[in-house]
Amino acid sequence: MQETHETTAPLPEEDLPGRGADAGADPCEGPAVDPAYLALERELAVFLRRARASSGEMAREVHPDLEPAAYGLLVRLEEGGPQRATDLAAYFGVGKATMSRQLRALGDLGLIARDPDPADGRAALIRITGEGRERFTRVRDARRAQYIRKFADWNRVEIAELARLLHQLNERAES
Questions:
Q1: Structural element, H or E, at residue 102
Q2: What's CA 127's distance to the chain center, in Å?
Q3: Is 70 exposed, middle or buried, given 0-12, 13-18 or 19+ CB atoms closer than 10 A?
Q4: How many other C-beta atoms are found inside a 10 Å radius of the C-beta of residue 52?
Q5: Where are the beta strands (DSSP E) in 30-146?
Q6: What is the pLDDT of residues 91-127, one digit of tens each?
Q7: Other CB atoms within 10 A of residue 159 CB
Q8: pLDDT for 39-51, tens place per residue?
């Protein structure tokens, strides 16, 4: 079943944050919450729900037994190269036990391997294996082709602006 929802029209200039009669007021205080923040909350909730479902689908395409949350680990390892488990846990904001469980599952599937950390013999660096890279790349490339189709009617400036805003959102989530 496909989920549907109404999209909101752009806000009038006076309703944009920092504009109009309420400029400088806290948008979350008072009897009514700012409609811009309500729209943001609603759209993010839909986006996150769809992202979780998509992540699960991509994980299953990499390997039928791969947990959806572990797919993000493959993304990070592919982009950032070998990393310590503690660094991965910090990046994703999860505990060591959760990270250990996910890494163990990825290792059991042959998608990652552990190598001694040359900077600290007591630690290990986690890296994506050749098989893991091949499986991940196939799924990632198919996903990118899907993005190109879905955003075919957007111009490059809109796509770049969306990417910039999502990057800004992600950076603020880290702090």
A1: helix 96-108
A2: 20
A3: buried
A4: 12
A5: 112-117, 120-128
A6: 988 999 999 999 999 999 999 999 999 998 889 999 9
A7: 13
A8: 999 999 999 899 8
